[in-house]
Design goal:
binds guanosine-5'-triphosphate; elongated; AAA+_ATPase; SR_rcpt_FtsY; 14 helices; receptor; alpha/beta; P-loop_NTPase; Rossmann fold
Length: 349
């Protein structure tokens, strides 16, 4: 069953990546850097909430707009109304268990607070979604402190790992941090090239070996470079083209061993990159990765292109995996820190 999550049509993906490489880089996105390689030219102030809201447009249409329409269509609150709400949440990939929990709590509150008008249900539903996410919320903040941080990026290919590494590096560079990217996905030369391009765009240093090299050896070199150059953050790419759990475990555990033995003093983050557009499949991938390594957080990409944004709720509450970052577009500045309050406000606004 698990095998399917990792099976990819390599030729098809190769074409996609080569096409991507041929695309000209938008010069506007290349930022001026100072002598330390830090980005000094800032875009005008962006309203992050508005951007998140725009990114979640499809989720809002697929979930909240439908909730509003249902609530308007009912004259009273009855069992059928709850069934309809349940269906909307499940369809928006909130997940069956989480949906049932939310609906149960909603029913209790309606009863306890003696609410009879359907339009009052909206606010209660919003509150319950927020609560259920907050209860299960781990720490949504990345562990970036005074000591260097090693970030291992894991996830199957095609989910947006390369793009996310570039965006993440760009965010750190904007904060004045020294960043090194290690190209631990050595499966294909084009993957290394693509990552190098993102690395250049973000202004990070880049450590690579050739195609087919041992990923753990690349990470080893990345660590030596991070120590020698006193980097604040080392972002390590890993391969996702693994066909079964055992291979995945072997490959990742070797990398983890290298990081732990060579860089014990560093903070560690293991970020699982998931594609929001795959909905419940993303949840299944998360379950597999959770079994093979200690995930410290999730980056959910492509939230802008999907109505399945409810998957955030399921990830946090069903799997207890804190969503730390969300991708809301293809551009270098389209990666945002995640927080429950903004997310719930954005989908119910
Ligand atoms: N709309 C949107 N597209 C995204 C986002 N993140 C990544 N993408 C797109 O998703 C596609 C795949 O991204 P990659 O970064 O190449 O994915 P990958 O996981 O590194 O894939 P491999 O190179 O096969 O390992 C690209 O076309 C990206 O532009 C996002 O947040 N929103």
């Amino acid at each position: 069953m698990f095998k399917n999550f990792f099976r990819r049509n390599k030729e098809e993906k190769k074409d996609e990546n080569e096409k991507h490489l041929e695309e000209p880089i938008d010069e506007e996105e290349i930022k001026a850097t100072n002598e330390n390689g830090n980005i000094v030219e800032e875009k005008p102030q962006i309203n992050f909430f508005q951007k998140l809201k725009a990114g979640l447009d499809k989720t809002r249409k697929g979930m909240t707009d439908k909730i509003d329409a249902i609530l308007r269509s009912y004259g009273k609150i009855d069992e059928e109304l709850f069934d309809d709400l349940e269906e909307i949440l499940v369809t928006a990939d909130v997940g069956i268990n989480t949906t049932m929990e939310i609906i149960d709590r909603l029913k209790n509150r309606v009863k306890e607070e003696k609410i009879s008008e359907p339009d009052k249900v909206r606010e209660l539903l919003k509150e319950e979604i927020k609560k259920i996410m907050e209860e299960s919320e781990g720490d949504n903040k990345l562990k970036i402190g005074s000591s260097p941080t090693v970030i291992l990026m894991v996830g199957v290919n095609g989910v947006g790992k390369t793009t996310t590494i570039g965006k993440l590096s760009y965010n750190f560079k904007k904060q004045g941090k020294k960043v090194i990217i290690a190209a631990g996905d050595t499966f294909r030369a084009a993957a290394i090239e693509q990552l190098e391009e993102w690395s250049n765009r973000s202004g990070a240093d880049f450590v690579k070996h050739s195609e087919g090299a041992d990923p753990a050896a690349v990470i080893f070199d990345g660590i030596q470079a991070a120590k020698a150059r006193k980097a604040d953050v080392l972002i390590c790419d890993t391969a996702g083209r693994l066909h079964n759990k055992k291979n995945l475990m072997n490959e990742l555990s070797k990398i983890f061993r290298v990081v732990n033995s060579e860089f014990p003093e560093a903070e560690k983050e293991v970020l699982l990159v998931l594609d929001a557009t795959t909905g419940q499949n993303a949840i299944s991938q998360a379950k597999v990765f959770k079994e093979v390594c200690d995930i410290t957080g999730v980056v959910l990409t492509k939230l802008d292109g999907t109505a399945k944004g409810g998957v955030v709720i399921a990830l946090q509450s069903e799997l207890g995996l804190p969503v730390k970052l969300v991708g809301i577009g293809e551009k270098i500045d389209d990666l945002q820190e995640f927080n429950v309050e903004d997310f719930v406000e954005a989908i119910f606004d």
